[in-house]
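Hello,

Our lab assistant flagged a job as stuck in the queue for most of the afternoon. It eventually completed. Since we weren't sure the result was trustworthy after the delay, we are filing this so someone can double-check. Below is the sequence as submitted and the structure that was eventually returned. Let us know if re-running is recommended.
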Amino acid sequence: MTKARLFQSALPIGRAALSGLAKTMLRPVADPTWSRGQQLWVHVLRDLLMRVKDCDGAYQRSVLGSPVALLPKDITETKLTLGQRTAYRWTPPEASSKHRLIHFHGGGYVIGDALHVRSYVCQLARGMGIPAVSVNYRLAPEHPYPAAIDDGEAAVQAVLDQGIAPQNILLAGDSAGGNLALATLLRFQRLGVRLGGAILGSPWVDLSMPGASVQTNASLDYLHVEVAAGWAEMYAAGQLGHPEVSPSHAEFHGLPPIHLAIGDAECLRDDQLSVAERLRASGVEVDVNLAAGSVHCWYIQAGLPGTTDAVDHMVAFGRRTLKR
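-- returned structure --
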């Protein structure tokens, strides 16, 4: 990256930090369960997302790329290729060789990558006692639908080809990655392959975002509807209602168990709760963790209230589902 490009990327971060600090100092805390530090984090991230929402995908990735956490000492990291896409496998001590967690990162299908969720996914792998794989699927706008789900299918098929039984594979994902995990689960279901289950964290289940919480939680969540709508336009290729783009429109009968981690303060909450109800009505075993005062994908951000509790819920679901 050139010095000019680096400066252009750093400029909105600095402005967002100053704006967020001012808002935090001058305004009352938005939720009684929040600390000033949490409010500052929400203000800065929301302001930063709004500043770059109209920029191209490459620029958004240069500004919004988060630092990669150090690899935990007890975890073995292996870089590999799954379905022609780069991926990382994190293996805890004494991990079961017959199980696998396949994770898809978030970022609106436009930003993010497999390594940015290293710390969080390693916690899941360690807690479940199984190897976890994080996949670098293709991103929009350079690669709109169906590129990401084609990559999701290819990654799962590659794991199946390694001899891992379908019922021993858990899919997981956060935000857009939760969308991708559910869409991939549904694609394999249509192919007659029933995977073990899925852990969906703050999943972006309907890219048209019809739920009332998009407005009622607008002052709480850092993820603003205008930001998400821009990402949806880049990814959906004019097919917002397609059940692989917005899995909330799909048929759920016959799906394996699903865990939903939902923040009560996130703008996508109502869409997620609606899908939970539809899953139950379709006979699917659904496990919901609705976290009070929590924003979008709160459990990935170390230090936020409820992070440990949310990960513990996911791990318990995974162990119970895989009977570990």
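-- support follow-up --
The delay was a queue issue, not a problem with the job. The result is valid. The first strand starts at residue 76 and ends at 82. Residues 1-7 have pLDDT under 50 and may be disordered.
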